[in-house]
Amino acid sequence: MTNGFRKAFMAKHPMAGRLGTVFLVLAALLFSWWAVQQADRQLREDLLKEIAIVSRNIGRIDVHALQGYSIRYRHDSL
């Protein structure tokens, strides 16, 4: 764009630069929100897969130990 054309365009459409800036900011915000949602969904799916694997390999006594019960209490309650 030449400088003369830009001045003429801005004289006819004074809000064009501001609207373009607002549009770009909104587009960036929407893309950021979408990317965060995608990452969150992927992390949650991975966590659920890992929990399923761990839950198959851990027993009830081990779960009580993870919760902080003493050994004597743990064996008495089972």
What this model shows, in words?
Helices cover 86% and strands 0% of the residues. It is rod-shaped and about 80 Å long. It has 78 residues and is an all-alpha fold. The protein starts with a helix and ends with a helix. It has one domain. The protein has helices at residues 3-12, 16-57, 60-67, 71-77.
SSE blueprint:
Blueprint: H1 3-12, H2 16-57, H3 60-67, H4 71-77
Keywords:
78 residues; 4 helices; 0% strand
> How many helix segments?
4
User: What share of residues are in beta strands?
Assistant: under 5%
The helix-strand sequence is: HHHH
How many strand units? Answer: 0
Rg, Å, rounded: 29 Å
Number of domains: 1
- Calculate the mean pLDDT score and round it: 79
Task: Give me the oligomer status.
Answer: single chain
Unreliable stretches (pLDDT < 50, length at least 5) are none
| Category from helices, strands and their pairing | mainly alpha
Largest sheet: none
Amino-to-carboxy terminus distance: 80 Å
| Helix percentage | over 70%
Shape: rod-shaped
Short note summarizing the structure:
This protein is mostly helical and 78 residues long. The protein has four helices and no strands.
